[in-house]
Description:
By secondary structure, the chain is α/β, with parallel strands linked by helices. It has helices at about 35-45, 65-70, 70-80, 85-90, 110-120, 140-150, 215-220, 230-235, 260-270, and strands at about 5-10, 30, 35, 50-55, 100-105, 125-130, 135-140, 155-160, 170-175, 185, 190, 200-210, 245-250, 250-255.
Amino acid sequence: MTQLHTVVFPVAGRGTRLLPITKSVPKELLPVYDKPVLQFAVEEALDAGAKRLIFVTHASKTAIPNYLKPDNALKAALDGGGKTELLRALDDVSLDNTVEVIFVEQDSPLGLGHAVLLSAPHVTGSAFGVILPDDVILGTPCLTEMAAGYPGGHMIAAMKVSADDVSKYGIFDAVADGDQHQIFRANGLVEKPDSETAPSQLAAVGRYILDICVFDALRTLAPGAGGEYQLTDAIAADVGRVELNGFAFSGSRYDCGNHAGLLQAANARAAQVGQALVAE
Ligand code: G1P
């Protein structure tokens, strides 16, 4: 299995689809039943063996570094008050000192490609992971499954979507049925195509293992869909240089960038921890 030393988390977005709460609370800290969205992403990176976590964030989102840093005073207070259960909840999310946490600021919303490029000075090794925390995946840790089957080059988690939904995703130019655990070769990737021109119904989901050559493509990238620098376009530009594979993951993915997705994820998480409170 490939050891992923570094994982990048783009978390600078404003989360406008979740207003009004995101006026003051970063979307990454909204709860999925018992833990914030970001916690699932961090745990997935650690499960894949990551030792360096890079958060590309915005200066206004101070709650994110506050969440990630240790709070020894709170720990001591819980300990002193004999609150063992609560102390355990805090310990469960504490990063041990073998894990390095780096924050990089993205001042302007110039796109996912721009966010990933900002992490370049801190990335070591020949490949690194990217997790988009909005895409919460429950079940088998997705990045770990990907690292286990990683053949080199660029690899992205994939799932089949309806024809109506292709315009919401990066879409693979590939022929595959999207069966779980399938690794399929792609000839390209297109960001948010319309349903008439989409090369397939195989969508990219927010888990990437990227060869570091992607930074060269990102440095010379022109703005793409929505006028933003798209990670998808840099990956597509590398096709022919390194292989591009999709990986049909086995967990369940929830789009926690919108209210309905957050609610579905919370329900699924509650069931996972044995607390099925809300009927589907
Ligand atoms: C991003 C990527 C897109 C991918 C999607 C997965 O889009 O640009 O290629 O399919 O995440 O969630 P966003 O949802 O940030 O617009």
